Amino acid sequence: MKNLIYICSVVLLASCSMDAVNVDLPEVNPKLSVSCFISSETDTIKVAVFWSKPIFSNVERPEKPEDALVTISDGNTTASLQYNSITQQYEIPATDFSLVPSTQYYLRVRASDGTEVYASTAIPEIVPSVLVKK
Amino acid sequence: MDWLYPFMDGASFDDLNNGEKFYARYDRRHDISVVGIYEFNENFTISATWVYGTGQAITLPQANYSVVVNDPLNTGNGTLGGYPGLTSLTDYGTKNDFRMAPYHRLDIAAQWSKKLKRSERTFELGVYNLYNRYNPFFYNIEQNEEGKSVLKQYSLFPIIPSISWTYKF
Fold first, then answer.
1. Which phi-psi region, left, alpha or beta, contains residue A94 (left: φ > 0; alpha: ψ -120 to 50)?
2. In this predicted model, what pLDDT tens digit does every residue of A75-101 receive, in sequence order?
């Protein structure tokens, strides 16, 4: 009886795996992923740029593009960030482009193939600290 | 074929899928069952059943990408390749945008019955999934020998012959 249970279990619970057929796999192109945090208190503005890695596509690009055009602007002045091969980020010293609270900043990244992404944000106003006496 | 389903192009919710329409997880466009039974005589019957169902709508990951996590206390000279904090995220694309392969199978059976004085006995031979269709049970993303990601389909229940003997009293 035990053997019968084993045999039935093997037959009924066996599965087979094969490459998926008759399905449309999501083949997408790499997208730009950009990370940047700005603060009026940092000495360097850093922007990290990556290409996403599609899972099912054969399109391959270097994960960290070194030839992108990265610019930051406050609406009046525009500065270009240079690629730093040590930190692998695009950088500009805060002395070359100062960040001021309550100003709107625009970030633009243009990859060598023409793909562009934009973002904008403002640094919040510094909240004055309040001394509470007990 | 979309003109056939003017009211079935999915639903939208403000907080899901960027507010755009998407198919429900169990959206099944076609669900067909065909059953045929033929009685040769009162003792011998054959039957066949064919079922078909559209594949379920699921979400597949499309790409992986890196992002920097803001970590002001880390100077960026650490072990994370020069990044203050790096993590990998997955781009899933549009919700439920991938259709699993359709489900279908054919079952056949032959029954021999014999009525006894106060009882009836039936002997049945059947075949489940006659044409040995590998219907998808689940998918898994795996690496092939070349290191590339491939979608693997796992299936249960290939062609299964069956035999039964029933005694009614």
1. alpha
2. 999 999 999 998 889 999 999 998 999
